[in-house]
Structure formats: structure tokens, C-alpha cells
Amino acid sequence: MFRRVLSAVVLVVLGVALLLAAWPQLLGIQRQVGVVQVTTLRGLLAAIALLCVVFFTLIALMSSRLRRFAGAIALLLLAFAGIEVAVLTTRGVGDLAFETKAPGDLTVLSWNTLGDSPSIDAITTLAIEQDADIIVLPETSADYAGQVQDALSASGLSMKLIPLSYDQISKARSTMLLISSDLGDYVRDDSKGGTDQLPSVLAVPVDGTGPVIVGAHPVSPVPAEMAGWRQGLEWLAARCAGDNVILAGDLNSTLDHYTGLDAASDAGGGIGNCRDGARVTGNAAVGSWPTILPSLLGAPIDHVMATPNWTFVGFRVITSEDDAGSDHRPVVAQLRPTG
Asked: pLDDT digit string (tens) for 187-224?
């Protein structure tokens, strides 16, 4: 009798835990420690759950004593994996389609360089191939970004460098923003504060014409930095309160973490008034980190977002640079003025 009660309790607790891991928004715990880390890697969790289904199914087949208990666990894990796969499929497992770049279109490239790890040639070649107008480089030194700027200039692509470093000790505490000269003159605006621990660059057009541009990098949601991580997302949401904003970078978060911070009610996801380019183009399940995992098992934490005055006509996670040295994949988006 006691064994049956204990088994029932274990199954109920496991079922509730799996349900909340699959959709923590049910209780509004999507930004709580532990839950954040679990929901970041949905693809990997689904794969692990399916392997566990096989394991517990074998136990059920081989042991008459544990058949019901192991079989029930296998069913719970199968249901959990099914929910995860359904969520990922809904968000999009990859659509590489881009439209021909039209006048007024902007191409935004973001790549966390893990402290200048990719070669200068790798960055500049990618930027030229993508015809980038805006480049966001989290965890990148000013010297490295200056060399990228010079290399792009030598190739005929003139860009202004807007750097922000919290110190010169760790390259992770620097974020670099490059903006095409064709967009006009931009300056850094420090009047709104910033993200804790790691810098996010806020750039505004000098003449007031053009989008506000945010190069984002809130701190990672490790247990000791959860308060700083939440502050970072809230700060970014506040920056997206305007009506002409482009935000890109390593947000150290996925669509799961934005519930309650997203002002938009449509299917665009995102943060504040900004819609997520990966979500609206069917790419939001494609992981950009870490490069050691296949993209569909990784975490989609690198983003390009924009307010509704911009339409996303293309987005992709670039997998061809997995051996370049960074643990992040670059992401690129093509935006077109709405209307």
C-alpha cells in the first residue's frame, strides 16, 4: 500500500514538474532561477526526454515489478517531449528565405565574438557578404572592432564605431556597435542608464531621423546574477517602448522569458514594443548557442528585434561559422520599412 501511494506521489510531482518545465508561463515563473535554465534548451530537453522514454520503456518490459511505474514515467516523459516538439515546431525550425534587398531595407548582423575569437577576416567577410548596415558585437574589444571598421572601410563599407566598455580587464564587459554611414550620424546615449554587469549600447541619430539602435547584452542568467539578468531584460523592454527601434545582440534569453515584458499582443513575441525577427520568420527554434550543439538542440538566445514600423523579410542563424572560434553563431536579419 505504502509503495503504491509513494509511486502515485512521485508520478504526480514529476508530472507537475514536467508541465511547468514545458510551459512555466502557466504560473508566471518563467524568469525564476532554475526554470530559466531549463526552458532555454528546449530542443536538448526534448531529445533527453525521448532517450529517457526508451530507457524506462525497456525497464517496464523487463521488470514485472516496476512495469506500471516505469511505464507511467515513460508516458509522462513522452508527453513532455511532445509538448516541447510542438512548441519548437510552432516557433519555426528554420526558414532561410530572404528577399532581394530593396531601397530602404536594412540588414542587421549580430555576433558574440567570445572575446575577439573569430578572425578579423571572418567578421569582415561575413559583414560584406550580408551587406550589413548595422553590426552588433558583444564581448568584443574596441581595438578588435576598430580593426573590423578599418577592414570594412578598405572594402568600401564605411561604418561608424560606437563602443561601450565597463572595464578593460574582461572583453566580455565590452559591446561594440557599428552603423553604416549611409544611415547618418549616430551618437551613444548614456542618459537612460544601462544593463547591469555587461554593457548594452544605446545609439540615437544626431538629427533625430532614423531608428534608435540598441546593441544588447544583458548578463547571463546564472544563479548569482538573476537580479542583474532581470534588470537587463526590463531595461531593454523600456528601450523598446518607442515607435522606431531596432534591437540586436546576445540577449541571454529566449521567447519563453519575455512573457510580461512584451507589450505587443500579436504573434511576434519579442520584448516591449519590439517583435522578434526569428519568431515572425519561422526561425525561433533554431539555436544560436552553443556551437558545439546542433542548431535545433541549442538555445536561441541571439536576437534581432524591431518595432512594428519595420517588417522582417528575412532572418537566419548562420551555421557556417561554427569553427570560427566563438561559442555563438551569428544571426542576420533583413528589415524593410512598413507601409
From this structure: 999 999 999 999 999 999 999 899 999 999 999 999 99
Residue 259: Cβ within 10 Å count: 13
pTM given for the model: 0.95
**Spatial distance between the Cα atoms of 178 and 136, rounded to a whole number of angstroms:** 7
Query: Is domain 106-337 annotated with CATH 3.40.50.300?
Result: no
Phi-psi region of 104 (alpha: psi -120 to 50; beta: other; left: phi over 0): left
Question: What digits encode the pLDDT tens for the residues 214-250?
Answer: 999 999 999 999 999 999 999 999 999 999 999 999 9
Measure the CA–CA gap between 89 and 308, rounded to whole angstroms: 24
